[in-house]
Design goal:
Length: about 475
């Protein structure tokens, strides 16, 4: 039985990790305009600073989770932290676009190893009746990271350098390493002795990479062939996993568990429709409104701050009201907030933008915790680790798709040119087009959220967020 010290250490480790990941993403998004100017990036290449990282996370998340089950979750987690620290230092030292993108990829690999195993360790050491509480703490940590990212990222970018953002996470990672080596006792490898599905992992990686690269090359004709090939590879992956003796990902849950499948789909759509907002609004505020990075961070902090405050309440609400209803309401409010943002023009007041972000924060809060609650409560206890991995995978794929959509729109509307005052009308058009696409996605998310069905009777037992 795990000691209280092990449980507390696992909670601190997982919570710190849950803070670092969204903090890095949201703070870098604020710094992207400054990074682009310093490294002389065009609009499309600028999106790859974020997209390359998300792509690496998405490709390596699933294989890393399985490696943790086979060889030990703490071991894979520790390796991931080391990779993350080293790559963060090299990101901070980058002197060219290619160097930064390469080490963002490596940083994404390290983060995938950490993210795939951190939640699994937490689930492993806490009994079912306590898991809802600790999952709720982790959700709060994610939103605190999202809240702190734009403000602190803007502050550091303006007064220090965008490079300081990468170095900021290093002390947190060192604290995690201390807790791992001196406080977190034991190892967890529930699939020890199984063979690693290397071929399945390669097929999965090829499929995901092909889809993202294909999207980034639109509207070129070759992009269609790349996306088609990637889609075929994804179908082959599903077929392979259904027949593999030791699948790298248990895809059967998506075929046999309607609640799990549609809740996961709703999560994917939600992140796809919202993640790139920070990036788009950062460009709008710093280029068109001529705000400093610090001021931009203050404007953008409203959304995650509302999420951090309301998410615990939304989670508790989903314990009393059918999670499907709460989450669907959140998705609908998100679509409404996106519609309000579509009215943006160069003269829009900052108060209006803050108000829109608060509406979006309410929508995200009502969706995220109840949807996570639904996913974790839709599976048997022996699949809790897989459910946690599914949440992380849908989040990563959604983020990646969101930035991919932005990349396509920038490629078509602006092209591979630097963003100057002459390009501001096209930049404004790109932002509005992206928002319209995200509204359509959110409407699809409302359908997916409602189509999931009702939760099982035992849902409320031990899964309180």
């Amino acid at each position: 039985m795990d000691t209280e010290q092990t449980k507390k250490s696992a909670l601190i480790i997982a919570t710190l990790n849950s803070f670092i990941t969204p903090f890095m993403g949201s703070s870098i998004n604020v710094a992207l305009p400054v990074i682009g100017k310093e490294l002389q990036m065009d609009a499309v290449m600028l999106t790859w600073v974020a997209t390359a990282y998300l792509l690496a996370v998405a490709v390596f998340l699933v294989p890393s989770g399985k490696l943790g089950d086979i060889y030990g979750r703490k071991r894979i987690f520790t390796v991931g932290i080391f990779v993350f620290i080293i790559s963060s230092i090299f990101c901070a030292a980058s002197f060219s676009t290619s160097m930064l993108v390469v080490f963002r990829v490596i940083q994404g690999i390290g983060n995938a190893m950490v993210f795939a195993t951190g939640m699994a360790i937490l689930v492993s050491v806490y009994p079912p009746q306590e898991r809802g509480k600790v999952l709720g703490i982790n959700v709060a940590a994610v939103y605190i990271g999202l809240s702190a990212g734009p403000f602190l990222g803007g502050l550091m970018t303006q007064h220090l350098s965008w490079r300081s953002i990468f170095l900021f996470t290093v002390p947190f990672c060192l604290l995690i390493l201390f807790l791992i080596f001196w406080r977190l006792k034991g190892e967890w490898a529930d699939a020890r002795g199984e063979k690693f599905d290397f071929l399945g992992s390669v097929i999965y990686g090829v499929a995901i990479t092909g889809i993202i690269i294909g999207i980034s090359l639109l509207p070129a004709l070759k992009s269609i062939w790349i996306i088609l090939g990637a889609t075929i590879a994804l179908a082959v992956f599903v077929k392979w996993e259904l027949n593999a003796p030791y699948p790298v990902f248990e895809v059967r849950l998506f075929r046999t568990n309607r609640l799990f499948a549609f809740s996961s789909l709703a999560a994917l759509i939600n992140y796809a429709a919202t993640f790139a907002l920070t990036f788009l609004l950062s460009l709008y505020l710093q280029h068109i409104k001529a705000l400093s990075p610090q001021a931009t961070g203050l404007v953008l902090v409203a959304q995650p701050l509302v999420m951090a405050i309301l998410s615990p309440w939304a989670g508790r609400l989903s314990d009393r009201i059918e999670p499907r209803i709460v989450a669907t309401s959140g998705m609908a409010i998100t679509a409404f907030g996106l519609a309000l943002l579509c009215l943006l023009d160069p003269t829009t007041s900052l108060a209006y933008i803050v108000g829109c972000n608060m509406v979006l924060g309410l929508g995200f809060a009502l969706f995220s915790s109840p949807n996570t609650n639904a996913i974790m409560g839709s599976v048997e206890k022996r699949f809790l680790g897989i459910a946690s991995g599914a949440v992380a995978t849908m989040r990563s794929l959604g983020m990646m798709l969101s930035m991919g959509i932005s990349t396509v729109i920038f490629s078509i509307v602006i092209g591979r040119v630097k963003i100057t005052e002459e390009q501001y009308p096209l930049l404004m058009k790109s932002i509005v087009v992206a928002l319209v696409v995200f509204i359509v996605l959110s409407i699809g998310g409302v359908w997916a959220s409602m189509a999931r069905g009702t939760s099982p009777k035992e849902f409320h037992e031990g899964f309180e967020l």
